[in-house]
Design a protein that fits this description.
By secondary structure, this protein is mainly α. Helix 3 packs across helix 12, helix 7 packs antiparallel against helix 10 and helix 10 runs antiparallel to helix 12. The longest helix is centred in the middle third of the chain and has 33 residues. It is flat and about 70 Å long. The chain starts with 12 loop residues before the first strand and ends in a 13-residue tail after the last helix.
Length: 312
Amino acid sequence: MTAPLITEKTPAEETPTGRTLSEGTSTEKPPEDASDTAHHTAGLVAPRPPVHRARSRAYSLTVRALGPVLLLVLWWASSATGLLTPDVLASPAQVVGAVGELWGNGQLPDALATSLTRSGLGLVVGLAAGLTLGITTGFTRLGDELLDSSLQTLRTIPFLSLVPLFMVWFGINETAKILLIAVATTFPMYVSTTGGVRNTDRKLVEAMRSFGLGRLAIVRQVVLPGALPSLLAGLRLSMTLSVIALIAAEEINATEGIGYLMSQAQSYARTDVLAVCILVYGLLGLTADVLVRGLERVLMPWRTAGPGGGAR
């Protein structure tokens, strides 16, 4: 008897899809011809990258001025048609006349200098305190454990509620006014600084330590530059809040300043002078915002264009 012929089978090959192919089976797909390619791409639109047109500086300023100009026109029209009577709100012409009167007799320049001094001193103290506390709690674990919970509790207290207490502690002199502004501006700077410092790249900090840099050098050369966007955001909030706190501070028995002019105008029902003081406070806040924007352009020029490139 002859032995049966046994044929040796080659091992099956597994394709990426999980199917097995025997020897001689091709895994290559047949090439597509031009008609198939055209069929698959029919109806598709070629992608076009967005094109950002750079806006001129004059155009940007004109757009920004539209809102205030429209409000001014509405104010003037309401006064001219009698919808706003002088006992409710003076007309723009009367306000301009009041500005000339107050500037001519020297009351407005003196009041403006006094208010700017108060706001500036309080802002400097508040920024220094917020920056120091933010670096301490954001960069050191011990500072975070010791200070953060207490500062977060104090941050929830409205600074306006501290006015009577400050009058008892410091009297009705300039110290109470400056410290009230300082307290109001400390916490926005503290929160922004803490968040910016904590978001600093820890690997970069460790690398600088391995090169022998001390803590102060790391803070100055690594942490603060990395936290610069948060620091500028805190500065912007603090400068705006300093004007709000200035209004409250000048209610503490002030004998000079914009708040004193407002109290005098209220006593004599001078709505034109009241409007002048309100506009001065608004211009102070706008000036502070413009200054911070200019500082951002100098320190972070790559962010001036915004997410839309030159379209901002």
